[in-house]
Fold this protein.
Amino acid sequence: MSQQPPVRSTGSPPPRPDASMSLLTNVMDHALDDGYAEASARREAEGGGLPRTLRAKLGLAAGLVLAALVVTLGAAQARISAPVVAKEREELIDRIGSETSGADRLEKEIEALRAEVGERQRKALEQHGGDQGQLVALLSGATPVRGPGVKLVVDDAKGTGGGGDGPRESSGFADTGRVRDRDMQRVVNGLWQAGAEAVSINGQRLTALSAIRAAGDAILVDNKPLVPPYTVLAVGDGKKLRTTFQDSADGQYLHVLQENFGIRTSISDQGEVRLPAAPSLIVRTAQPSSATAAEGDGPGTADTGKGTS
């Protein structure tokens, strides 16, 4: 007797995977609120929201015509005013170019007049300086000079940056390896003391009244900014001048800057260096203060200062 296979009951269907997310399912199935859906259906039944009366239609047409008129007038105005604006812009550009050319021309005239005044001052100094006129002109920076000497280059340390709080900061210097105005003052004074007859920094001639100052991180010589490296040229006996400067206190000071702060320096003898004349001079002559002073009975005032203006 054959045995029938067991009958397996199908049972209930498996539950939906989203059965536990009924709220989220409801939101996804009914994205639009019922009230909004009813209002939309009612508006479509009434004519899609468009005006139905004649007065409403005329008002809508008038509004559209007015909006089109405003847009048309704006476009026409922009088209009309565009050439005017372009013309004004061209006129302004031409005016700026003309004024700039005029300023450049005046600057060239000023430089030419300044050079002429300086040349006449130098000639007057040479003519009325007596037997020592040439020496006075040389020492005052009135004439360009050339001759043997030394070349001293002073430059900031590699990778220098702004600011610092090192040992030089407390003395008015920034411990960043930057060359400061006081450093250049000591270098120049040391060269004068070592026997230099004439000195220049970056092609700018120094005189007895030249000022080396600082403005922020920039070094000014007679109010003209200089940029590193600072090339100092000095006229004199090259070998003797170099040795005397290196052995002096100012030369040792420069060596300390190189050792402690990484400031780069180099000095070498030169067979010939050329120094320009000072840009401008103020020549003053001595005058007796009174008649008795002129007769030799009293002291007189003498102002023979010469320097850059």
About this structure: The helical segments are 22-29, 34-45, 54-127, 133-140, 181-194, 238-247, 249-261, 291-295. Strands lie at 145-155, 198-201, 204-205, 212-215, 218-221, 224-226, 230-235, 264-275. The first strand starts at residue 145 and ends at 155.
